[in-house]
Design a protein that fits this description.
heterodimer; A: about 650 residues; five-stranded antiparallel beta sheet; B: about 120 residues; alpha/beta; five-stranded parallel beta sheet; 5 helices; about 20% strand
C-alpha cells in the first residue's frame, strides 16, 4: 500500500491526522488479515492492501485508476442489489471456488484519500475453509433429517438453561399432533404419556435433565387421536466448546408395530412350545415325514414313537421309513402306503414294523398330508402309529375262543338230541332182543342189528365230541399269581381309559391246572362286563385269596379238592336284574344292545372255569354293583 | 327200591323205566325238576335218577334244591352230553352240585344198574 493514511475518520467527523496517526492507519490497513480495496467516489481503485496484492497478484500501483475486477467487482454488485443495510452488516459470496465474507463500507473521507468526498472500502475475507465445515454440518443435518424421516423417528432437544424443549416435525406426527400445536415442555408432555407408564417416564426425564444418558426406554403414549402407541426413547448430552453440558438431544421412535410383532412372535413361540409338549406327551406315536426324491424321511418323532420303536429320537429322525420294514412286512401293503405319501392322500392300514432290536410289532398306521399355511403346497406328512399287537392278540383269542365255544355248543346240542334218541333205540332194542330170542330168531336178529347200529351211532357222536374238544386248549400246571398278573396286564390294556384296576392278590404262590390263554380270556371277559356295567368309568377290583373250610362249604364246593382259590372281580356298576340272574351264563344271553354283545362272554367263562374243575358264581345288587366269584381248585402235590 | 325218574323225553323215560323195572325197582315219573320236587315232598324214595337239560326246572336246579334242603337222597344223573365235553355241565356235576354219580346217554342197561348198585352200596356202607 503506497498511499499514506491521512485520516481514519470514516464518519467524516474528525479533523486532519497527525503523521504518526497516518502511519498507524496505513500499517493497520496493510496488515489487515482481510483483503481491502479502496475506491473513490467514482468507483475507481486508488489503493489495495498487501494481502489484496497477493490475492490479485497485482501491485497497488498497477491497479490504481482502474475499475475493480475479480471478487471485489462481485462484492460491489451484490452490495448494490442487497441494499445498504445488509451490505454494511456483511455477507458471504462465492467466487472461483472460494468463499468470501464481504463487507462494503461507505465513508465521506478515508485516511487513504483525504481529499475525496466519498470513498468505498471493500473488504473480502477468505472463509472457504470455514464454509466447507458449515456445509458438512448442514449436509449431516440433512442426512439425519432424512434418516429420522425414513425411520419415522422424531428428535428433540432440551436446553438446560431455559428448560426449553424443541421437537422435530416427526415428533408431532408420532404423538398424533399438528406441527407446533403444543409446547412440548416436560409438564405438558406428561399429559401425552399413558398413566401406567407416567412414573417411569418422570424418572427418565429426571435422568435426562441431570445429564445421564438414556437408552431404549420404552413406554406408551396416548396420541391426539386417542390411540395408544409404544415408543422407544434415547437421549444423550450435548457439550459446548468449553466441554460443559448445555443440552440433551435424543430420538423418539414409534415401535408399536415392532412390539406387536414381537408379541405375536412370543405368542407363536409359546403356542409352538405347548403343541410340541402336547405331541411329546401324546400316548400315540406321531411322526412328521418329508417326501423328497421318493424317500420318506422322518423329520420329527414324539416320545411315544421312540417307545414304540424302542429307540432314542435321534436314531429315528432322518431315517427313511423303509428302515423300519422287515421280512415280516407285507411289501405290497407298504408300497400302497408309500404311494399314498407320494400322492399326498390320506391312508390308513396295518403293517408289521421292525424295532431297532430286531423284534417286530403290528402297527396301525395312518398318514395325512400337511399343507403350508399360505400356499396349498404339501410340505410334509403326519404319520400316526399305534402298536396294535396286543389288541390283535386279544381279538384273536376272543374270536378263536368264541368260535370254538360256538362250535362246541352246536356239537354239544346236536349230540344231546341224538343221544336222547339213541337211548331208547339201544335200550328198547336190547330189551326187545332179550324178550324175543327164544321164540323168534329173525326178530331177535333184527333187534340185535338195531342195538349194534345204535351203539355204532353212539361211538360216532362221542368221536365228534372228542374231536371238537381237540381244539380246546391244553391245561398245565402254573403259578396262578404270575399268570394272573400277566392276564391283568393284557386285559387292562384293552380297557377304556376311565377304568382303573386295583389288584389285591393275597396269595404268594399257588399251583393250578389251567390254560394261560383261557385264564386271560376269563379276566378279559369279566373285566369287559364290569367296565360295561360301570359305563366305562370306575374302578374294578380283582382279589385272589385262599378259602377257609367254611367258605368252601358255603360256596357248595367239592371237598375233593383240599384247597380252593377264590378270584373275585368286583365292580360298582349297574348290577344284574333279577330277571337275568338265572340266565347270565347261558350262551347267546345278553343284556347289551343288539350288535354290541354276542352273549357268549359269560358262557365262555363258565365253560372255561368248569373245564378247570372250578366253579363260578356271583353276588349282585342293582345299581350297587356285581362281584363275580371264580373258584379254582389248588393242586398242592405237584 | 322206590325210584323217582326225572326225564322230559317220554322215549328215554320209557327206556330207563324198563331197565329199572327189569331189576325189580318200582318207578315214579316226573317230567322236570318241579314235578320231581313235588313228588319228593309227597312220598318216600330211595333213589333219584335225573336228566340234566329239562324245561321248567333243570337237573342242576333240582340238585341244588335237594341238597339245599339238606336231603342226602342218592342221585344218579343221566346226562345227554358227553363226558368231558367242554360245553356240557357234566364235569363238575358231582364235585359242585352233589350228584352221587353221572352216566352218559346212551348207556347200557348194565351200566345204569351197576351205577345204582354202587351208589346204594356206598350210601348204605
Amino acid at each position: 500500500m503506497e498511499t499514506d493514511v491521512k485520516s481514519m475518520d470514516a464518519t467524516g467527523a474528525g479533523g486532519p491526522m497527525s503523521q504518526v496517526e497516518r502511519e498507524i492507519a496505513n500499517e493497520l490497513i496493510n496488515r489487515s488479515p482481510a483483503h481491502l480495496m479502496l475506491l473513490d467516489g467514482a468507483g475507481v481503485i486508488f489503493d489495495i492492501n498487501e494481502r489484496t496484492e497477493r490475492l490479485l497478484k497485482r501491485s497497488a500501483a498497477d491497479l490504481r485508476g482502474s475499475k475493480p475486477t475479480h471478487v471485489f467487482a462481485a462484492i460491489l454488485a451484490r452490495a448494490d442489489t442487497i441494499g445498504e443495510e445488509r451490505a454494511q452488516r456483511g455477507f458471504q459470496i462465492q467466487h472461483e471456488q472460494a468463499w468470501y465474507e464481504a463487507q462494503v463500507y461507505r465513508a465521506l473521507r478515508t485516511p487513504a484519500a483525504p481529499d475525496t468526498d466519498s470513498y468505498v472500502v471493500v473488504r473480502a475475507t477468505d472463509v472457504t475453509d470455514r464454509k466447507s465445515a458449515e456445509f458438512q454440518l448442514l449436509e449431516s443435518e440433512a442426512r439425519l433429517e432424512e434418516a429420522t424421516r425414513i425411520a419415522q423417528m422424531g428428535t428433540y432437544k432440551l436446553y438446560w438453561d431455559t428448560m426449553k424443549v424443541i421437537w422435530s416435525h416427526q415428533m408431532y406426527e408420532i404423538h398424533g399432533l399438528a406441527p407446533d400445536s403444543i409446547d412440548p415442555s416436560a409438564s405438558r408432555y406428561n399429559e401425552l404419556v399413558h398413566p401406567d407408564d407416567l412414573q417411569s417416564v418422570k424418572e427418565m426425564v429426571q435422568s435426562l435433565v441431570s445429564g445421564r444418558e438414556v437408552a431404549n426406554s420404552e413406554y406408551r403414549i396416548m396420541r391426539g387421536d386417542g390411540r395408544v402407541r409404544w415408543v422407544t426413547v434415547d437421549g444423550r448430552v450435548l457439550f459446548d466448546v468449553g466441554g460443559r453440558p448445555y443440552a440433551t438431544f435424543g430420538t423418539v421412535q414409534d415401535v408399536t408395530e415392532i412390539k406387536n410383532r414381537e408379541e405375536r412372535l412370543r405368542d407363536l413361540v409359546s403356542r409352538n412350545a405347548v403343541l410340541t409338549e402336547a405331541l411329546q406327551a401324546s400316548p400315540i406315536g406321531v411322526a412328521v415325514v418329508t417326501n423328497q426324491e421318493d424317500e420318506s424321511r422322518i423329520f420329527y418323532a414324539n416320545a411315544a414313537m421312540e417307545k414304540i420303536f424302542g429307540a432314542e429320537e435321534q436314531k429315528i429322525i432322518g431315517r427313511n421309513l423303509e428302515d423300519f420294514i422287515g421280512e415280516d412286512t407285507d411289501r405290497s401293503e407298504f408300497e400302497v402306503l408309500t404311494d399314498a405319501i407320494r400322492r399326498a392322500t390320506h391312508y390308513a392300514c396295518e403293517i408289521t414294523f421292525n424295532r431297532f432290536d430286531g423284534s417286530s410289532f403290528l402297527g396301525q398306521i395312518a398318514v395325512a398330508p400337511v399343507h403350508a399355511e399360505a400356499s396349498k403346497a404339501v410340505i410334509a406328512h403326519t404319520l400316526i402309529i399305534t402298536d396294535v399287537t396286543d389288541d390283535r392278540r386279544r381279538t384273536e383269542v376272543m374270536m378263536e375262543s368264541q368260535k370254538m365255544e360256538a362250535l362246541g355248543k352246536l356239537a354239544g346240542g346236536v349230540a344231546h338230541e341224538i343221544n336222547n334218541l339213541l337211548q331208547p333205540i339201544i335200550t328198547l332194542s336190547d330189551l326187545g332182543h332179550e324178550a324175543t330170542e327164544k321164540d323168534n330168531e329173525k326178530l331177535s336178529q333184527y333187534f340185535d342189528v338195531i342195538t349194534r347200529s345204535g351203539r355204532k351211532a353212539r361211538e360216532i357222536v362221542r368221536q365228534v365230541l372228542t374231536f371238537s374238544r381237540q381244539d380246546a386248549p391244553a391245561a398245565s400246571f402254573h403259578d396262578i399269581c404270575a399268570l394272573l398278573r400277566d392276564a391283568i396286564q393284557l386285559a387292562e390294556s384293552g380297557l377304556p381309559p376311565g377304568i382303573t384296576v386295583t389288584q389285591k392278590i393275597t396269595v404268594d404262590h399257588a399251583q393250578v391246572l389251567v390254560n394261560p390263554t383261557q385264564l386271560s380270556q376269563v379276566v378279559i371277559n369279566l373285566f369287559r362286563n364290569a367296565a360295561d356295567a360301570m359305563d366305562n368309568q370306575g374302578d374294578i377290583e380283582l382279589a385272589l385269596d385262599s378259602m377257609s373250610e367254611q367258605e368252601i362249604a358255603e360256596a357248595h364246593l367239592s371237598a375233593a379238592a383240599h384247597s380252593w382259590l377264590r378270584m373275585r372281580i368286583m365292580d360298582t356298576g349297574s348290577g344284574i336284574e333279577d330277571s337275568a340272574r338265572g340266565r347270565i351264563f347261558d350262551p347267546f344271553f345278553t343284556t347289551k344292545p343288539v350288535g354290541q354283545g354276542t352273549g357268549l362272554g359269560l358262557s365262555v367263562v363258565y365253560s372255561i372255569v368248569h373245564g378247570w374243575g372250578g366253579s363260578i358264581d356271583f353276588d349282585s345288587e342293582v345299581d350297587k354293583g356285581t362281584t363275580v366269584m371264580v373258584y379254582i381248585p389248588e393242586h398242592l402235590d405237584v | 327200591m322206590n325210584v323217582l325218574l326225572v326225564e322230559d323225553s317220554p322215549e328215554v323215560s320209557l327206556s330207563v323205566r324198563e331197565i329199572l323195572a327189569s331189576a325189580g325197582h318200582s318207578v315214579e315219573d316226573a317230567a322236570n325238576g318241579k314235578e320231581a320236587l313235588d313228588k319228593l315232598s309227597g312220598s318216600a324214595f330211595d333213589l333219584v335218577v335225573s336228566d340234566i337239560w329239562m324245561p321248567e326246572m333243570d337237573g342242576i336246579a333240582l340238585l341244588k334244591e335237594i341238597r339245599g334242603n339238606g336231603n342226602d337222597i342218592p342221585v344218579v344223573v343221566i346226562s345227554g352230553g358227553a363226558p368231558n365235553a367242554p360245553l356240557t355241565y357234566t364235569a363238575p356235576l358231582a364235585s359242585t352240585f352233589g350228584a352221587n354219580a353221572v352216566i352218559y346217554k346212551p348207556f347200557e342197561k348194565e351200566e345204569l344198574l351197576q351205577t345204582i348198585e354202587d351208589v346204594i352200596g356206598k350210601a348204605d356202607g
